[in-house]
Design brief:
The protein is α+β, with helices and mostly antiparallel strands. It is about 40% helix and about 25% strand. The site of (R)-mevalonate has 15 residues, from α4 and α5.
């Protein structure tokens, strides 16, 4: 199935991007371990570019105004836009870029990377050019470097992918063939997390206790290898155990918090086969592996009742990326 990611009419060009979830391996992936990420199409971003005379302007829920006066938290996006315009030989004026996102910000769902990718796609579409994955990743990573400090690149790559991604920094990405459908629930703890701060806190820990912290990162790497085996062969019960084990290590790295832990333990009590934080942590979302489709709906409802701000039951299909239930 080919999915249209960018379209152009006479007046406007549109670029879209879905979101992503890290199944296992977050944080360790920044330090050279593998991670597994999955596309999450239940939320996404649309960027619309149109000709409007004057300075380049940005219109988003965070900010409306000229690109050269964006607030600090949008400077990564502003740089990504400037680099893309330069790359496309477009002048720095006469454009309005509108960003419409259903991805909650700061919840570990790759909102910053999705915004960047949808913008790059829309600017290429505006000039009637198609972009290669390499161009897309390079330009979108300009924004990610600001958002994450030293991003592994996994978010941008997964957002450009339709399949589950096996990712190791500086290696060509691989895609995972699933042996069965896996039913998950994603639940939002409500607190906004800052991936950059979380990534920096792990880097600081690693400097202060290199051997102890390296062992934890290596352990997450081993669990990620086991999780791949679970997705490809061993099945959901084994995958659940790997997710629970990874959560122990993430807690020890100091990137889980009380709100995430509460939802994680609740999900396990309610029969989840495994549950952990997803993404940068210290706020944001959890991912829980349900027993089956019915259980994923029930679990989502229960998580909502105990205070999750949003819940998404979600199936990762055997032969393609996940879709909402
Ligand atoms: C964020 O989704 C995942 C992290 O591992 C950061 C990164 O890989 O860039 C926490």
């Amino acid at each position: 199935m080919s999915i249209q990611k960018a379209t152009t009419t006479e007046q406007t060009a549109i670029g879209i991007a879905h979101s992503k979830l890290i199944l296992i391996g977050e944080h360790a992936v920044v330090h050279g371990q593998p991670a597994i990420a999955i596309p999450f199409p239940l939320v996404g971003v649309e960027s619309v570019v149109e000709y409007v005379p004057g300075k380049v302007k940005l219109d988003s829920s965070f900010y409306h105004g000229p690109l050269d006066s964006v607030p600090e938290n949008l400077s990564g996006i502003a740089n990504c836009i400037k680099e893309t315009l330069t790359y496309l030989d477009l002048p720095m004026n006469d454009l309005l870029i509108q960003i419409k996102s259903s991805i909650p910000h700061g919840k570990g769902l790759g909102s910053s990377a999705s915004v960047a990718i949808s913008i790059v796609r829309s600017l290429f579409a505006y000039t009637n050019r198609t972009c290669t994955t390499e161009e897309l990743l390079e330009l979108a990573n300009v924004a990610e470097t600001y958002a994450h400090g030293s991003p592994s690149g996994i978010d941008t790559l997964t957002i450009t992918s339709e399949s589950s991604v096996w990712y190791e920094k500086d290696h060509p990405a691989d895609f995972i063939q699933l042996s069965e459908d896996f039913h998950f629930v994603v639940a939002d703890s409500g607190r906004i997390g800052d991936t950059r701060t979380s990534v920096e806190s792990v880097a600081t820990l690693l400097l202060s206790a290199p051997r102890r912290i390296q062992r934890k990162l290596d352990r997450i790497g081993e669990l990620t290898h086991q999780a791949k085996h679970a997705l490809e062969k061993a099945g959901k019960h084994f995958l659940g155990q790997m997710l629970n084990e990874a959560q122990k290590e993430l807690e020890a790295l100091g990137v889980s918090d009380a709100g995430l832990n509460r939802l994680i333990y609740f999900a396990r009590q309610e029969g989840a086969l495994g549950a952990k934080l997803t993404g940068g942590g210290n706020g944001g979302c959890i991912i829980a592996l349900a027993q089956n489709e019915v259980h994923s709906r029930q679990l989502a409802e229960k998580l909502r009742k105990v205070g999750a701000h949003a819940v998404w039951p979600f199936v990762l299909k055997k032969d393609k990326h996940g879709s909402g239930e």
